[in-house]
């Protein structure tokens, strides 16, 4: 059979992926740049760490005494009461923290300014991004290996990283939330499967901690708990069985909920300390969701940031969902419920293209889940006639190469970070570097109108 026994072990494939990521990060050398790594949203995620452990001032008043260059690297919002508050929750800061403390020690040992923003801290964040990618691939491989042969697992892991915009966010745009979300989703899926095989203390604590961290890093990702609730439900009669199963294991369910709550306690304390409220909407009065007007079609197909335009290999995953009904019934209901709801929530956000970036970055977190139907589709093709396999797998590898090409286009500016149009896309098609008149071809979004609902 085509390609059989010609693909190395999944461990070797995962190491190959990690080496590709390390090489790409090393060649970019962004830690030497003043405006890379700790930039944009990362400033808000990361700011908790230097504020708490270096400046010892979560009120952020210390920023008034900083040089302008460093002051600009600490973002906050000012509440109606004049209190300075970090815009984002602290989930990413918790995940960054081991690498932050190691970087802080290195900064002192090697004579760097230990202010939280020099080269050692940037390298620490890059290493954290690669580490969590490796952990995510470890869990993804363990999940897929339970259901698919080695070749399918290898191809799926390869496509999930090198064939999607996940690669961009572990190389060109680290350390935004999405690689960390991908890792936690993969671990959550793995431990969910293990929990239903045999609930235990360690697994229950792991699920609770992951649920808490997933939602603390990106609150809308809390819907991943649907996977836990719906896993292995394949018929209406299974719903009653699931309810009874939860009741008979209520102690573990309570433990999971308590651990998830405990993960949120630092955030509750921070909000209470800064604002006087245990729960605080830190995005302000302007930013929010338009649930009556989701931009799903634009989010999937538009030239600005369309998911399937810039990550077309995910069509394999979407098609594969329908193959789960026969191959892996346990996954069908949770994925068929999760995906439409996830798309609805993501594209109901006021800025449906999510500012700057490559492709639809909020969907990267769910790639660990989408890898399962992708593998199901590839497995189905694996058992078809030779000419079908050749055609589909050739397209599969072309799309991986196409994604790598588009990543380079984004790096050099041929794909603009937020203003792409049809004219700009086709004017730059096949070019790594942008055409001379690119600015005339772009379609810049009007953020002021969009935030008011003119989307």
What would you note in describing this structure?
The chain is an all-alpha fold. 61% of the residues lie in helices and 1% in strands. Strands 1-2 form a two-stranded antiparallel sheet. α5 crosses α6 (119-145), α9 (177-197) runs antiparallel to α10 (201-217) and α16 packs across α19 (367-382). The protein starts with 9 loop residues before the first helix and ends with a helix. Mean pLDDT is 92; it is low at 1-5.
SSE run: HHHHEEHHHHHHHHHHHHHHHHHHH
Q: In order across it, which strands form the biggest sheet?
A: 1-2
Average pLDDT for all residues: 92
Count the DSSP helices: 23
Low-confidence stretches: 1-5
Q: Biggest sheet: strands, sense, closure?
A: 2 strands, antiparallel
Radius of gyration: 22 Å
% residues in beta strands: under 5%
Gap from first CA to last CA: 50 Å
Query: Which secondary-structure class do the elements indicate?
Result: mainly alpha
Overall geometry: globular
Please report the total strand number as a whole number: 2
Residues in helices, as a percent range: 55-70%
State the main characteristics.
455 residues; mainly alpha; two-stranded antiparallel ribbon; 23 helices; 1% strand; disordered N terminus
